[in-house]
Design brief:
mainly alpha, 29 helices, protein phosphatase regulator activity
């Protein structure tokens, strides 16, 4: 049997069950084959029991024939065994691979394995550490610290990174622990810390989190990681997730528990928010305030605390925190109520609209119509009217475009209850700003032009027929001339629709005459095609008689062109 097996241990269990001829061939090994090539062959092509036997024997085999080339050969074979064992979810193979790598890092030149202790009770662990250091002083390890750092550790971390199963957590952590006292350089130790933190993420499975706990315990015991570092790197994630979960489940608690147990904790967090809660608190502030408002838990006692916290977050140095606060402004206004919209909150609005970060300005402008609706006409006129006109002076056409998009909802609130002169003055200023926006918007940004067109189709509900004819229709004709094809078609559709709402007959006729002259009788093919598109839209907007009289006859004349 010596001719067939690498060692006596390889024979154990090989003949259990039925064996196929191909399996029997795997048992045969050349008699004069050197030990390292024989180990490599069996690890790659042998039966499971042969692989397990070789993995057990590898540290001592390598001790007898140690060289750089042999180490590379063995590690490549181990990687091959690992991949196959992981694919087949073979618990025995995976555990033995980790044990083998652990022993390779711990074996001495005379074949003795000095095991680095795992964390336990203080007295017991302290005694084991003293014994380990005493043995290590006189020991000469088979592999140098440089070999462990550059060759063994990357392989171990690769294997640990892929692990999710709880059954392998302990042996994998023992393997990582064996590497720690043999490492040279802080970079590799940082890699162990990083993978420990990644494994401890709350989104990971139970096996990964167990690996995290075991590795962090070893790192702490080895004084590579202080308790404060662990709290900062790992447990803060848990606290953030706990805070988010508490807010998501807030409405499921009875009113008494919310009032007596949860709200005091939330208020304490708002008064002195920890640094790791700043970002999630800014992101969830609107949801928290809205929940308290809808459940009736938002009392006057909490308003000052919430306002102070929101102000602090809104003036943060971090642009992402300010962006979250800008997005949450409508929810905060709704929770505080119109009566609480003091000049203090208006100062925050002005700060958002003048922020150096364009995404923050875009975000707050996009919600301006919601704030106006929550404040009501009088307060909106007092606080938001001048702000809206100031936004049209923003250096970014995109920010201006976001305001134009919300004008159909914003303007009716601003103009409710005001005299005609004030209303017309404001709308004239707004329409001039829209025309200016068109001049500074690059021709290639047709999607933003489409957004403007979508807003213009709602303008007849709050502007006069004269303003519609003198301000809006010329802009629509300009977009029909200079815009991209989708913009031209949409501008024609909006022109046909808004002209129907013009209550002055002369204005409607003048638009029709210009449409016929420049498009039905246009010199270019695309102009005449655009007129036919306008006819298609008019067919849906007007009566059959009006359509036939004002649109169809010029279209029929095109048949003779």
């Amino acid at each position: 049997m010596d001719d067939f097996f690498f060692s006596e241990k390889e024979a154990e269990g090989c003949f259990d069950g039925d064996m196929s001829p191909s399996d029997l061939e795997k048992l045969e090994v050349e008699e004069d084959m050197p030990e390292i090539p024989r180990a490599d062959l069996l690890l790659r092509t042998g039966l499971k029991q042969q692989k397990l036997s070789v993995l057990v024997s590898l540290p001592k085999v390598l001790a007898a024939t140690n060289s750089k080339e042999n180490l590379v050969t063995i590690l490549d074979a181990i990687k091959h065994v690992w991949k196959k064992g992981e694919a087949e979810n073979d618990v025995d193979i995976i555990n033995e691979v980790f044990t083998c790598l652990q022993n390779l890092a711990s074996i001495t030149c005379d074949g003795k394995i000095i095991t680095y202790p795992m964390t336990s009770l203080f007295e017991e662990f302290d005694a084991m550490m003293r014994q380990y250091h005493e043995e290590k002083v006189t020991a000469v390890f088979l592999l140098t610290d440089d070999q462990v750092t550059k060759q063994l550790l990357p392989l171990v971390l690769e294997f640990v990174h892929e692990l999710q199963v709880k059954d392998h957590a302990e042996v994998a952590s023992h393997c990582v622990a064996a590497m720690i006292p043999r490492l040279s350089g802080s970079l590799k130790k940082t890699q162990i810390i990083r993978i420990g933190i990644e494994k401890g993420d709350v989104s990971q499975g139970a096996g990964s989190r167990l690996i995290c706990c075991l590795i962090l315990g070893v790192l702490t015991a080895s004084t590579l990681l202080s308790e404060q570092d662990i709290d900062g790197l790992f447990f803060q994630k848990v606290k953030v997730m706990a805070f988010q979960t508490l807010l998501s489940l807030y409405d499921y608690f009875p009113p008494r528990d919310r009032r007596d147990v949860i709200l005091p904790v939330v208020a304490e967090i708002l008064e002195h928010p920890p640094s790791y809660l700043i970002s999630p608190l800014a992101r969830l502030f609107g949801r928290l305030a809205f929940k308290l408002f809808t459940l009736g838990d938002f009392t006057s006692d909490h308003i000052a605390t919430f306002q102070a916290c929101y102000t602090t977050l809104s003036r943060s140095d971090c642009p992402d925190v300010r962006l979250d606060c800008a997005r949450n402004l409508p929810a905060v206004v709704q929770a505080f109520g119109p009566a609480q919209y003091s000049p203090h909150l208006d100062d925050l609005l002005q700060a958002f609209t003048q922020d150096t970060s364009e995404p923050i300005r875009r975000s707050v402008v996009s919600g301006l119509h919601e704030v106006a609706a929550l404040l009501g006409p009088q307060r909106a006129q007092r606080y938001l009217k001048a702000t809206s006109l100031a936004v049209f002076k923003d250096e970014s056409p995109t920010v201006q475009g976001h305001l134009i998009a919300c004008l159909p909802s914003f303007v009716p609130t601003i103009c409710t209850g005001v005299d005609d002169d004030t209303k017309n003055t404001y709308i004239d200023a707004m329409l001039k700003a829209i025309l200016h926006h068109h001049t500074i918007l690059a021709a290639g940004r047709w999607r933003e032009q489409m957004t403007v067109l979508d807003a213009l189709r709602h303008f007849p509900t709050f502007i006069s027929s004269t303003q519609l004819f003198e301000r809006v229709c010329p802009l629509l004709f300009e977009l029909m001339n200079a815009g991209a094809r989708p913009v031209q078609v949409e501008a024609a559709r909006v022109l046909v629709a808004v002209n129907r709402d013009n209550k002055i007959t002369a204005n409607r006729v003048n638009v029709l005459l210009r449409l016929r002259k420049e498009y039905a009788l246009g010199k270019n093919f695309w102009q005449r095609t655009l007129y036919l598109d306008a006819c298609n839209f008019a067919c849906d907007c007007y009566s059959h008689q009006y359509f036939r009289t004002n649109y169809l006859d010029p279209a029929i004349d095109l048949l003779e062109v």
